Amino acid sequence: MTGAESLIRTLIASGVQVCFANPGTTEVQFVVALDRVEGMRCVLGMAETVVTGCADGYARMAEKPAMTLLHCGPGFANGIANLHNARRAHSPMVNIVGDQATYHRPFDPPLTADTEGLARSVSHWVRTSGFAQEVAIDGAEAVQAARTPPGQIATLVVPADVAWGEGSGPAVSLTVAPQAQVAPEVLRTVARILCSGEPAMLFLNGQALREAGLVAAHRISHATGAKLLGPTHVPRMARGRGRVPVDRMPFVVDMALQVFAGLKHVILVGAKPPVGFFAYPGKPSLMAPEGCAIHSLVRPEQDAVAALQWLADEIGAPRIVPIKEEGPKPRIASGPFDSEAFGMTLAAILPENAIVCDDAVTSGRAVFPATFNAPPHDWIQSTGGAIGHGFPCATGAAVACSDRKVVCLQADGAGMYTLQALWTQAREKLDVLDVVFANRVYKILYGELRATGATPGCASDNFFDLSRPDLDWVGLARGMGVEAVRVETLETFADTFRAACGRRGPFLIEFRI
Ligand SMILES: Cc1ncc(C[n+]2csc(CCOP(=O)(O)OP(=O)(O)O)c2C)c(N)n1
Fold this sequence. Notes:
Helices cover 36% and strands 17% of the residues. By secondary structure, the protein is an alpha/beta fold. The chain is globular and about 65 Å long. The model has no long low-confidence stretch (mean pLDDT 97).
C-alpha cells in the first residue's frame, strides 16, 4: 500500500468523510488511492479558494474536519484567503498539499515554492512528511491537531515520492483532550463584577453564540442587566423566533462606540477584545470606552457554554427566562431593494431550520436585525473579512447538511472572487438558494472614501464601479449549470424565493439594485 493510500485510510478511520479538492500531478497518488478506497465523498472546486471556503462551510456545520487536497505552493496560496477566514472562525480543517518529490526539489522545477512558509501563515499545525512509512501517522496527528479546541487548521505537505512510496498501512486515530473548563476563581470574580450593579456587557463569540450558550447568557443578562453582544462577523449563530435576539458589534466605528458607551466592564466569552475592523485617524482601536475594564471569562479554547451555565447558576439567575421579541415583524415588503425591507421579507419566507451564509457586505447590514423574528435558523459569515466567502461557504454547508435549505446572501463584487462555487453546487446537486445583490459597485469602498472627506474621482470610479460592462448573473449562473432569475422588486423577490424553496437543487436570484 502506498503512503498516499495509507494516509487516506487513516483520515477515513479518523472520521474525515469529505475531500474538497483541486488536484494536480503531485496529488495523483491520492486520487488513485481515493479511487480504491470507500468512505470519502470527493468534491471538486474549480479554484482553490472555492475548495478552502467549501471546507470551512462544511466544518462549521458538520463540526468535524473536512480534508482539502491542494496542489503545491501556488495551489495552496490560491486557497489562503478562505483559509484565513476559516482560521479566524476556528474551523477544524486538514489540508493535504502535494509537493515536489524530495530528490526532485533541489533542481528547482517550476512549481517549487516555500509551501511550508505559505502554510504557516494560516495554519496552527504544519508538517512536511519525510517518509512514506510515517505519512499515515502524520495524518492521524493532523486530524488530532484540527480537532483540538477550539478547532484548528492543520496542513500536511506530502512530497510526491512520500505519496508513492511503500506506506505503513493506516494509522490508528488519535484522541483529543477534552475542552478546558473555566477556573472557579475566575467565575467567582466575574460573578462579583456582574452583581456589582456597574454597567457591564458579555461579549460573546464561538460556542457562546450557539443556542445553549445564548440561553445561559440570557439568564445572566436578565439577572444582572448585563448587555449581550456578538462580533461584527459571527462564525455560526443560532437565531430566529424563540431564540435570544443578540445583535452584532456595528462595523462603523462611531456606531460601535455608541453601543459600548457608558460601560464599566466588558466580559469576554470566547471573544477577543472588541476592536474596530480598521483604524481611522483620530478614532480609537478598541470600542470599549476609556475606564472600562475588559475581563476574560473564557478563552476561545475553553468550554464557553459550561462557563455561562455555571455563571448563571452562581448568580442565582432563574433557570427559565422568557425571551422578549425584538426587531420588526416579518412581512413581505414591496418596491425596490432596501436592506431592512429585504430582511423583513426574508424573515417572512425563510424556510424553517435554514442555514444563512452572509457575504452580503453593505446590502446585508440591516438584514441581520430585521431577521430576529424569522423562523429558527443558523447564520454564518466570513470571520476574517476576506470577501468571496459566501458562495463556497454555502456550498460546503450544503454538503454537510443535505436536509437543510442553505440561503447564500452574496454581494456581487465579493461574489466574483469565487463564483466557480456555483458550478460545484450544480455538480453536487446541492440545495442552495443564492441571492446576489447586484448593485454593480464596491459600495462599501465609496463609503470609506467619502468618510475621509474626499469626493470620488476618475480613479475611484475605475476602481469601485463594477459596470461597463454590467455583470449578467443570470447568464453566469446558467453557464455553470445553475438556474437563475433576475428580480428588481421585493415582491417579485418574495414570489421567486418561495417558488425556489419548493424545489431542491441550486437556484440563483439576481436582485438588481
Ligand atoms: C480578499 C479581499 N479582497 C479585497 C477586499 C477589500 N474589499 C472589502 S469590501 C470590497 C468590495 C465589496 O463590494 P461588494 O461585494 O460589491 O459589496 P458592496 O460594498 O457593494 O455591498 C473590497 C474589494 C477584502 N475585504 N477581501
